[in-house]
Specification:
Helices cover about 20% and strands about 20% of the residues. By secondary structure, the protein is an alpha+beta fold. The strands form four sheets. The chain has a seven-stranded mixed beta sheet, covered by helices on one side. Strand 3, helix 2 and strand 4 form a beta-alpha-beta unit. Helix 7 crosses helix 10. The longest helix is centred in the N-terminal third of the chain and has 16 residues. The radius of gyration is 27 Å and the shape is elongated.
Length: about 475
């Protein structure tokens, strides 16, 4: 997953960058400050949420910088403390602009770190925690989420070992604030706080919300509140900040360090920083008209244009409360001839009550009018992913006749209503260069033992060869007219 480079070279580069800054000035007192929740990914690509382990005796965060001898010494010490205090949770956090996910992974492997290194690539978490030098330690009390010890790992009048000895027994930390120094961690945003108060809501913030958030947070959307104006956003600003910091919103979980996807709905680095810095500056209104007043409207039914064919999904009465089992209704396919399917769009009858829809083709109507194990996948719906558009030169072959089957997942939201969802089909006349197929890797037999963390599962699919030939024998005959 990672491209490993020379650890010695990486260490030299980081050391030069830090030497230019010189040792950090004495750090500010942080004991008693509250740590807000956050989620960061470590050098292996695994996610860590700060407030996940509420039963730990202490949460220990150590500032790490590649190639820094102080940080390396701290890492060795906390490895020993990890064995001494098994009820405490230890993590390192890298907020250095000079380091990347790949170089952090190389440093961790080269130094044999046994503690995960969290990649604070946007520096937002290190900034909010107040980290300022390599090897700096914060020991956090999970009962209050306040800093109980701040300073270096080692201290003449106290240190992390002494602090943990008291924290693990429930006693207050005697020497809680210890002076420490180390190579400076430069976070440019700290000198720009005044500038953040001038971030334009109208020109910078609202356009991000319209592009990445309003699709759900609009009248009739699945979002629990609507971004209809500045006042609403201002009121929910603390929640927005938390949702971004824990990567709960936007709900697009692809790690860009692993792969890139089309139609990426996640926030960019610049967008993330703009929203967080604006909120932390007090979410100022500033000048200009409110783009949300005109930009937030009821979404259009068919964003790809009028479909060639619209099929009604059987209605379903969603109760006001409770748990609804997956529904798998089927309807007779109206297709009298084979078609090349280019795209589908789903129109959820209730964007609050419909969690997701999956659709497919069956060669015949299933017994009882319900069935899910289909032969041809026709895409699916989730909020923010209403349309399924095949890449250029790709299309799905749909035989005539048979049945269209759906998997419907409903989530009651406090109001009983009847769902009237629909699916729109978009066809093309010409045979594609590539025949598009989809397959789902699923295993209903997975069992995770209680109290097991970082459980791993592996699944695979074996492709039948060949996968790169042009469709020939299954090319359908396309009629001159399309179904209405």
């Amino acid at each position: 997953m990672f491209r490993m480079a020379s650890v010695a070279l990486l260490a030299g580069v980081s050391a030069l960058a830090l030497t230019a800054c010189g040792p950090a000035a004495p750090a500010a007192s942080l004991v008693g400050t509250t740590v807000d929740n956050f989620m960061l990914v470590d050098e292996l690509g695994l996610a860590h949420t700060a407030k996940y382990n509420t039963k730990a005796a202490a949460i220990v965060l150590v500032a790490q910088v590649n190639g820094d001898e102080g940080a390396r010494a701290a890492a060795k010490t906390i490895t020993a403390l990890q064995a001494k205090y098994p009820t405490a949770e230890f993590k390192m956090i890298n907020s250095s602009n000079a380091d990347t996910r790949e170089t952090i992974a190389a440093e961790a492997k080269g130094q044999g770190f046994t503690v995960p290194v969290l990649d604070d690539e946007f520096q937002l978490i290190g900034d909010s925690l107040g980290l300022s030098y390599a090897g700096e330690v914060l020991a956090i009390d999970p009962k209050t989420w306040k800093v109980a010890y701040h300073g270096p790992v080692e201290g003449k009048k106290g240190g992390l070992d002494a602090a943990l000895a008291e924290m693990t027994t429930g006693a207050p930390v005697t020497v809680a604030e210890v002076s420490g120094r180390g190579s400076a961690i430069e976070i440019p945003a700290r000198a720009m706080k005044a500038e953040f108060t001038r971030i334009s809501y109208a020109n910078e913030v609202a356009p991000i919300l319209l592009d990445k958030c309003v699709d759900c947070h609009q009248p009739g959307g699945i979002g629990t509140w609507q971004m209809t104006n500045y006042e609403m956003v201002k009121g929910f600003a603390p929640m927005i900040r938390e949702a971004i910091r824990v990567d709960r919103m936007p709900p697009f979980d692809v790690d860009r360090h692993v792969n890139l996807f089309q139609n990426d709905e996640n926030l960019t680095e610049a967008e993330t920083k703009t929203l967080i810095h604006w909120i932390e500056a007090g979410a100022p209104r500033g000048e200009g008209d409110d783009p949300l007043l005109k930009g937030v409207t009821q979404r259009v039914d068919w964003p790809l244009g009028e479909p060639d064919l619209v099929v009604d999904i059987p209605n379903y009465d969603i109760p006001a409360s409770g748990i609804v089992d997956y529904q798998t209704p089927a309807v007779a396919s109206p297709l009298k001839e084979a078609k090349w399917l280019k795209a589908t769009t789903f129109k959820a009858g209730s964007r609050q009550g419909v969690h997701h829809i999956l659709a497919g083709w069956l060669p015949k109507m299933p017994a009882g009018g319900n069935g899910f194990d289909w032969n041809v996948n026709m895409g699916g719906y989730a909020v923010g992913a209403e349309s399924n558009l095949a890449p250029k030169d790709w299309a799905t072959y749909v035989p005539p006749g048979g049945a269209l089957s759906f998997q419907m997942h409903y989530t009651p939201f406090g109001k009983a209503m009847t769902d009237t969802s629909k699916i729109g089909f978009y066809f093309q006349d010409e045979a594609p260069t590539y025949l598009k197929r989809q397959i789902v890797l699923a295993d209903a037999t997975i069992v995770i033992k209680p109290n097991t963390s970082r459980h791993h599962e592996r699944s695979y699919v074996q492709f039948p060869p060949p996968c790169n030939s042009r469709p020939r024998s299954r090319t359908p005959t396309i009629a001159a007219t399309r179904p209405s």
